[in-house]
Amino acid sequence: MPVSKSPRTRKKAEAAPDTATAITTPDASPSAALSPDPLELARLVAQQLDDDKAENILTIPLAGKSPMADAMIVASGRSARHVSALADHVARKLKEAGASQVRVEGLPNADWVLIDAGDVIVHIFRPEVREFYNLERLWENTPEKQLSTR
Q: Using 50, 70 and 90 to split pLDDT, how confident is the model at 117?
């Protein structure tokens, strides 16, 4: 025996897809479409690291040199706890500045933490780990005037 649906039940069923669509529709506001300037993000990151007492902060411009990012920042923390705190503050600052996706790797050990914000990549090391990997040597052909330290 077929079950008949009352108009009231049918009305609720018809309304459900509209509600779901409204919930999953992405924000189309003009501010959501704007992405922050990578060099400005790099400056903000370097300033945050300096404020948090990171050591040997090096900003390397990569625009036109590498397809992976427009800027890379390398810094050292005094201990694993300091590296972890630096990474947490930098990730928060990037999100506040409007970086759409901020991915963090390496926090459980905090020997080397990588923060990937798309056009800006941040490496935060303990000093002995930074010395061992020596990422700066990969970019030693970059003209000296383009490298900036804090």
A: very high
Name the helix (H) or strand (E) containing 120.
Answer: strand 120-125
Correct CATH for 36-149 of 3.40.30.10, 3.30.450.40, 3.30.460.10, 3.10.20.600: 3.30.460.10
Residue with token string 């061992």 = 132
Sheet holding 120-125: strands in order across? 103-105, 112-116, 120-125, 71-76, 55-61, 148-149
- The string of pLDDT tens digits covering residues 28-70 is 434 444 668 888 999 999 999 999 999 999 999 888 888 888 9
The residue with tokens 């509600």 is 19
57 backbone dihedrals φ, ψ, rounded to 5°: -75, 125
Residue 126 and residue 108: Cα distance in Å, rounded? Answer: 13
